[in-house]
Design a protein that fits this description.
With about 270 residues, the protein is of the alpha+beta class. The chain is built from twelve helices and seven strands. The longest helix is centred in the last third of the chain and has 14 residues.
Length: about 270
Amino acid sequence: MFYILVLNSFDSNYILSSNILLFISDKSEKIYKDPLNQRNLIYKENKEKIGVYAWYNNINGKIYVGSGDPLYRRISDYYQQWYIESKANLYIVKAISKYNLANYTLFILDYSTKENLLECEQKWIDLIKPEYNLNPTAGNSKGYKHTEESIEKMKNLAKGRKHSEEIKEAMSLNRKGENNSFYNKKHSEESLNLIKAKALKRKNISKPGLKVEIKDIETNITTTYNSIRQAANSINSDIKTLIRRERSELKKGINTPYKGKYIITIKREE
């Protein structure tokens, strides 16, 4: 059930004279007073939701309003070191770095739909005028470009730990059976013939000797693969897509998360 707030139905004098914290506490869908230690609960209750959230600074009373589609993935950014470092110039990120998430309360202000999300976020921004939102327009962070320093930090963060054999096995099992996108499907005879014909003509299918590092920014785990093919298979992609994407990212001078989740670095020799 979506909670829809009609701004005109509220007495503006009441809002102005009331304590904002009490107001949003009363109107919010969910409240997490200890978000640093309630991450699993936040994930469980919001993983398939779309909506508007607010970070409330328990020390100075300042608020930031944002939105997510999906909601949890957006909220989870604030727990990621790569995000905190690469977005260090944002006001809310600076504030979280200064005060720590332990001194914030997370409010889920509204659950919404994809079509109405920005309108819903704008409604809350207009309503409570959050101090951490320097731009009073919903969705204004879209189109954000990383600084050169941020790009370099993201590249460095993409290098790091490798999966243990135990984790690799767990990830492999997680992609089998019904979890596999091609589960219970078959190629048509025509598709099989096309695949065979292309395979016969193809040269240098893989790039031997090119190691690929893939960092899952949700788990903060980096895995190193011995070939582009291995790396592509691990994230249900293909060689051509990763190579095209690498060229495009190098041209733009940025390494953005693939599928919103993976930082990919192809280790080419200088």
